[in-house]
Design a protein that fits this description.
Helix content is about 60%, strand content about 10%. The chain is mostly helical and about 150 residues long.
């Protein structure tokens, strides 16, 4: 059995998919991938499927989408606790990865996770600063116009 992993940022021209009639599609929601134990169950389901080709779609881990909305709301509200909330997102994924993978694969994943978390922090910081700057500019404009 062969496995082709397609990353979201990978060009579809570089991916060779199996051709044939026997394909199965699996979609797992956040609760199904909410912990390392649940992820292991998902992996077992996929590995036991004897279809020639498999398409697997997974949601964010349980509660991560809610955590992301919370991060944005905190940054928009200029609440500095968005930084510790980002750390909680990182820690959830780091602990899960450490439970599931090891060696070079773990090092590679953690490197990518650090990169993604740093990008997330930069985007949230831009929101935090942008809202503050917008408030300042609006109040300055209002003062000049004697609102």
């Amino acid at each position: 059995m062969s496995c082709v992993a397609v990353l979201v940022d990978e060009s579809k021209e570089n991916v060779k998919l199996l051709k044939g009639d026997i394909w199965s599609v699996h979609k797992f929601g956040g609760t199904c991938v909410g912990s390392s134990e649940r992820i292991k169950n998902v992996a077992d389901i996929i590995l036991k499927d004897s279809s020639e080709g498999k398409l697997v779609v997974v949601s964010a881990m349980s509660k991560v989408t809610d955590m992301m909305y919370d991060l944005i709301n905190k940054a928009q509200s200029r609440d500095d606790s968005y930084l510790s909330a980002v750390d909680a997102v990182f820690e959830k994924h780091r602990l899960t990865a450490m439970d599931l993978i090891d060696g070079d694969d773990l090092a590679s994943f953690l490197s990518r996770l650090h990169h993604d978390i740093n990008n997330l922090k930069a985007m949230l910081r831009a929101i935090y600063i942008g809202i503050g700057l917008l408030s300042f500019l609006l109040s300055f404009s209002c003062m000049r116009m004697r609102c």
